[in-house]
Amino acid sequence: MNYEDVLNLSRPLMGKVCKSCRICDGKVCSNQIPGPGAKGSGTVAIENYNAWKKYRLNMDTLVENKKVDTTFEIFGQTFDLPVFAGPVGAVNNHYGDCFNDVSYNEILIKGCKENGILGFTGDGINPNIMVESCRIIKENKGMGIPTIKPWNQEEYMKKLQYALDSNSIAIAMDIDASGLPFLKNANAGRKTVRELKAIIDQTPVPFIVKGIMSVKGALKAKEAGAYAIVVSNHGGRVLDGTPATAEVLEEIVQAVNGTMKVLVDGGIRNGQDVFKALALGADGVLICRPFVNMIYGAREEGIQVFVNRLKEELIDTMEMCGANCLKEITRDMIR
């Protein structure tokens, strides 16, 4: 079974919005919610995808011909690829009702672990989502990252306890989720540096701040004590007019200067995009929507198909551009 086969299998199981497009560029689903689209025009998701295509790869095969190594170290663990499966919530509302958040995460976390990468789980107003996500992570020896919404500190502390009980190797907060419509009237929202620091100080494992889109924001996350950030505009779903993640990544990497791990998401769809992100200075990437299609189409086997495809594409790109390990991927390999 290949990637196209899994996409074909997923289409009858998706809802009315996601079409399991061969090219997942945000054009078909654009501004449709419920669905994977945006609360605005949906153009930012499209720009996320397009921005990676503006970079070109510089081929250089006059290098030592040895086996390429794609292994990636973070959180004291070694993974096969510098790739994470991003968090997604309310899959039955946004994609199709053959899965819910619990059954989706059961497959996601197990499938990612078995294929040498790591999955993030989502969060929602229903507290059972976090309870079950953390149970699943614990059953997989802590190999998953629960993503907690930007609740107030009291609510965060309740969910933190579930996350700690899961033995997860890190915990994330998608701070940009404060722009989601369903959180507007909940006990959640924007955070000051002081408020974020109070949360991070109570979190004894590496803390990831997802939703950073500026140097100023990155330096605030650093001041609050974040271990890592994810350069992300929430898949282009929360605010029209923002830049694409690829457009701001390099300046953010330069500003933090190695003091935090920098991950990036938004429109990354293949191994070439992963290579470009690393060349711009990212430590790793998150990919979300394609994992949904893979799980709907073939469950754990779909994850395996997609991860294998990403690995083959990344290896091929590294071989053709002169890098034999991730640390050898440099800025001059793209233009």
Describe this structure as you would to a colleague:
The protein is α/β, with parallel strands linked by helices and 335 residues long. It has one domain (3-333): Aldolase class I (TIM Barrel). The chain is built from eleven helices and ten strands. It has an eight-stranded parallel β-barrel, surrounded by seven helices. Strand 5, helix 6 (153-165) and strand 6 form a beta-alpha-beta unit. Helix 8 (215-224) packs across helix 9 and helix 10 (271-279) packs across helix 11. The longest helix has 33 residues, at 289-321.
State Rg.
19 Å
End-to-end distance: 34 Å
Characterize the main sheet: 8 strands, parallel, barrel
What is the CATH topology assignment? Answer: TIM Barrel
Global outline:
globular
The percent of residues in helical segments reads 40-55%
Percent of residues in beta strands: 5-15%
How many strand units?
10
H/E element string?
HHEEEHHEHEHEHEHEHEHEH
Mean pLDDT: 95
* CATH superfamily annotation: Aldolase class I
Q: Order of strands side by side in the largest beta sheet?
A: 3-4-5-6-7-8-9-10
- Number of continuous helical runs: 11
Domain FMN hydroxy acid dehydrogenase: 37-335
Binding site for glyoxylate: 234, 237
Cofactor: FMN
InterPro entries: Aldolase_TIM, Alpha-hydoxy_acid_DH_FMN, FMN-dep_DH, FMN_HAD
Short recap of the structure:
This protein has helices at 3-10, 43-53, 91-94, 101-114, 127-139, 153-165, 193-201, 215-224, 245-256, 271-279, 289-321, and strands at 72-74, 77-79, 83-85, 118-121, 145-148, 171-174, 207-212, 228-231, 261-264, 284-287. The protein has 335 residues and is an alpha/beta fold. Keywords: Flavoprotein, FMN, Oxidoreductase.
